[in-house]
Design goal:
Layout lengths: L1 H27 L4 E17 L4 E16 L25 H29 L1 E4 L3 E3 L5 H5 L6 E5 L2 E2 L3 H9 L5 E8 L2 E8 L6 E2 L6 E6 L4 H4 L7 E5 L2 E2 L3 H10 L5 E7 L2 E7 L14 E5 L1 H6 L1 E4 L3 H27 L11 H14 L1 H19 L7 H14 L5 H31 L3
Antiparallel strand pairs: 1-2, 3-16, 4-9, 5-6, 5-7, 7-8, 10-11, 10-15, 11-12, 11-13, 13-14
Helix pairs in contact: 1-2, 1-9, 1-10, 2-8, 2-10, 2-11, 8-10, 9-10
């Protein structure tokens, strides 16, 4: 019951803010709004507000919503439009007004996501400390005084508060750091002119890699791997981090190899025969990997940021998420991403409930992610989505006239087919994952 109620709350917030964007922009553009609905199907609650007596509806199927604008092209034959309202019809508006009204929905979702991220950064959240896990005795860093366990504090005057900060600073800096401050056992130290190389391994490098979950029917299940097994070596090559393990498994695809694991403090060897890979194309053996939760918790610290820093990081995170969403969506069509990863309403409900049970701030952060996701997906140039309409308006701007009704109908059918297939796949995955347990 909790999962259902949290799902309703989450969808109502995210869809409500999306439709409010359309609604408010339409009002600013003096377009008459006939109806504002959260959900589809049979109305549960209905009331009217405003000078236009807009009908506000909460409907029985909480899987979306819509704003109905006065439009001569979408008017029933029995409906008559007042002469005084004709100029306020959506189809009578300039191209820029129509563009703004359609774009306002996804944009306000993205803005909500940015502000939620900003709020979380300012409030503070648990972050992994920017600590060193390992470095060779022969390395320049070791010779200058850096040691495993040291926590980086400043890099050329830039404050480093988390592992994420350290990762960004290192990747964006190609030259030697002129001034490096670090903390060791509560004392501050600093060194000059340090060239950061791949020899310097940062947390969680070297931590035991554990299997967190196993997909039903996967290669991992067939060869007898279990949850909490520790992956130690692949073909006698020691594994020190998850990225290396994934790369080695993918490089060994269609080859036979041996896994060395530790199970209940006993070293075991498991042979994987290449025949198991023949029916798999996604180069995954079907496990979720992670680290020991207690070890990770010991390396966490609460990090609070200034408003300026929070806004900057929120935009960076939004940009990263934007690229990730677009890349994942494109990979679905070129078969580089697994369609099994698509989730529908049950997946959202499960994640919403899990975050809600963790606490109010994880739940707020989840709302930000879902809002951002809906905003970005709605900007995709697929007919029936807001992005499809925006693409039509850009086309109209370029050629000086709108698409013909015939071409519009064809494109909408294509859009309906794409969205229908994706929805069916997502619902099928939900049923397999949450109802059938596979």
């Amino acid at each position: 019951m909790t999962t259902f109620l949290v799902f309703i709350l989450t969808i109502s917030i995210v869809v409500g803010i999306h439709e409010f964007g359309h609604f408010q922009m339409a009002r600013w553009c003096n377009v008459k709004v006939l109806k504002f609905s959260i959900g589809f199907g049979k109305p549960l609650f209905t009331f009217r507000l405003g000078k236009d007596q807009t009908t506000f509806v909460i409907s029985s199927i909480p899987l979306g919503g819509y704003v109905k604008l006065l439009d001569e092209n979408n008017t029933e034959p029995s409906e008559r439009i007042k002469k005084t309202d004709i100029k306020r019809a959506f189809n009578r508006q300039s191209l820029i007004k129509r563009f703004l009204i359609v774009a306002a929905g996804p944009l306000i979702n993205i803005i909500l996501g940015i502000f939620i991220f900003c709020f979380i950064y300012m409030h503070g959240s648990l972050q992994i400390k920017p600590s060193i896990s390992d470095l060779p005795l022969s390395s320049e860093a070791y010779q200058k005084g850096l040691r495993a366990g040291d926590e980086i504090v400043l890099l050329d005057g830039v404050e480093i508060k988390s592992l994420e900060d350290l990762d960004i600073a290192v990747k964006s800096h190609n030259q030697a750091f002129q001034d490096v401050h670090f903390k060791r056992e509560g004392q501050l130290f600093h060194i000059k002119n340090l060239l950061w190389t791949d020899e310097i391994k940062i947390f969680p490098y070297g931590l035991p890699i554990l299997i967190q979950s196993i997909e039903a029917g996967s290669i991992a299940e067939k060869i007898g791997l279990r949850v909490r097994d520790q992956i130690i070596m692949v073909d006698q090559v020691p594994i020190k981090n998850i990225q290396d393990l994934i790369a080695i498994i993918q490089n060994h695809w269609l080859k036979s190899y041996d896994l060395t694991i530790k199970r209940e403090n006993i070293i075991q060897y498991i042979h994987i025969d290449k025949e198991l890979f023949e029916s798999k194309v996604d180069k995954k053996i079907g496990v979720t990997l992670g680290y020991d939760e207690d070890v990770i918790k010991a390396h966490l610290a609460e990090v609070k940021r200034t408003f300026e820093d929070s806004i900057k990081k929120s935009f960076v995170q939004t940009y990263t998420f934007f690229n990730l969403t677009l890349t994942t969506f494109m990979n679905l069509f070129i078969q580089k991403a697994d369609l099994k990863d698509l989730g529908g309403p049950l997946a959202i409900a499960h994640m919403a409930s899990s975050s809600f049970l963790e606490g109010i701030f994880p739940y707020i952060q989840f709302i930000g992610l879902i809002s951002l996701n809906i905003g970005i997906l709605n900007l995709l140039p697929i007919p029936l989505l807001d992005g499809g309409h925006l693409a039509f308006y850009l086309f109209e701007f370029v050629i000086g006239k709108p698409l013909s009704n015939k071409k519009m109908m064809i494109s909408q059918r294509v859009g309906m087919l794409i969205l229908g297939l994706l929805t069916a796949i997502a619902l099928y995955n939900d049923a397999c994952r949450y109802l059938l347990g596979s």
